[in-house]
Amino acid sequence: MRSGIDVAEARMLVLEAAHPLAPETVSAGQGQGRVLAESIQSERTLPPADCSAMDGYAVRRADLAGASAARPLALPVVFEVPAGGRSARALEPGEAARIFTGAPIPDGADSVVRQEDTELEGERVRMRIEPRLREHIRDAGEDVRVGDEILAAGDALGPAQLGMLASLGRTLVRVHRRPRVAVLSGGDELVEADGDPSGGRIVASNAYSLAAQCVEAGAIPSNLGIARDTPEDLERMLGAGLDADVLVSSAGVSVGDHDHVRPVLEKLGCRLVFWGVNMKPGYPIAFGRFEDRRGPLVFGLPGNPVSAMVTFDQFVRPVLLRMAGRSRIFRPTVRAILEEGLEKKPGRLHFVRVALERDGHRIRARTTGNQSSGVLRSMTLAQGLLIFPTEASSIAAGSEVDVQLLDPDWLARETAP
Ligand code: AMP
Ligand code: MG
């Protein structure tokens, strides 16, 4: 087991153990947020035929040479092509056909005149413009052609992809299974959120933050509950999480006398890969795995609420995203101007919780106040994690810093642009 390693090495060790989960077939309508495990080739041409982009009249352009508002030209309306219909015959010279958006262009026609540029007079329609060739005609296959690769394995399914799958007639798709995460809280002092927190007891809030972080990463959390600080209780409750893909326990992996998680995990057959990462918050994080993937990846996160969330964010989140089939598994980073000076001892990478503000083309960052790992407010107020590098000891006010974006929505506006 490694100890006291740097964040980059810890990240490498956890990701080495993480693989995209096996595919499963789901109904495309339920596929939002899932990641394709197959590429999607089209068996259709879309649109299937040349069709009208407007309500109006299909014409032969040559019949309207020189037409203008001052000198409109009239043509007889000889038939109608409804949306979803098809024309019974071709358009002959000197004729117009009533046509609706999406309806196939009749043979013989080469342009569409918008209804707004016409005037109906009994059986005839007066055209006030000379259309361009193929004006207001959508070409067959302009969207999709038979055999095109429309979506690639690894693409995430969002609204556009789901609409496209429906257009292609794909109602079932192969996607990576979502990772299942068992979440355990450990500690004699812990009570449930609706429990009595008097007498120094503490609400096991990590179960809530960690479960929500799982959901945000596309995983399915299940709460194993609170284990007491006894080897027996821990063994029983950790054992209940062994069929998950990932087991996350918070608290109980420091070196305190009552921390039984490490020996219990080893007894269950989990080999610890590392314990202790040179970071703040969150030094006492442990990672373990079972031989031959016979059990879940196991993360023993620190108990302090901020440490639990930050270590989850840095190590568990990318693992879950990779398991779910995603390739972009790391937070986006931005450069920001730090508004205040920061100091620390060299030796650990600090993830400083910062609030961000847009200032023209720049981003300004200021800390969210008290950075103690027990101060969960520092997370509720944060839009980003400022990277205070391992060996650095100070950052001057006004410097440019790297910030990982925690809140993808932080640029959203309260007022319309
Ligand atoms: P530990 O890692 O057990 O030393 O716990 C560090 C701090 O985190 C202590 O104040 C614990 O009470 C607190 N803590 C432990 N587990 C949780 C939890 N599940 N939710 C919220 N706080 C916790
Ligand atoms: Mg504890």
Structure description:
With 417 residues, the chain is an alpha/beta fold. It has four domains: 167 residues, Molybdenum Cofactor Biosythetic Enzyme, Chain A (3-Layer(aba) Sandwich), CATH 3.40.980; 44 residues, Molybdopterin biosynthesis moea protein, domain 2; 88 residues, Molybdopterin biosynthesis moea protein, domain 3 (Molybdopterin biosynthesis moeA protein, domain 3, Beta Complex), CATH 2.170.190.11; 73 residues, MoeA, C-terminal, domain IV (Beta-clip). Strands 1-19-21-22-18-14-17 form a seven-stranded mixed β-sheet, with helices on both faces. α1 crosses α6, α3 packs parallel to α6 and α4 packs across α5. Bound molecules: adenosine monophosphate and magnesium ion (MG). Adenosine monophosphate binds next to α3.
Write the layout of secondary structure elements.
Elements: E1 2-5, H1 7-16, E2 23-27, E3 40-41, E4 51-52, E5 56-59, E6 73-81, E7 96-99, E8 111-114, E9 118-121, E10 124-127, E11 137-138, E12 149-151, H2 159-167, E13 172-176, E14 180-186, E15 190-191, E16 202-203, H3 206-216, E17 220-227, H4 231-239, E18 246-250, H5 261-268, E19 270-277, E20 279-280, E21 286-290, E22 297-301, H6 305-323, E23 333-338, E24 342-343, E25 349-359, E26 362-367, H7 377-380, E27 384-388, E28 394-395, E29 400-405
Helix pairs in contact: 1-6, 3-6, 4-5
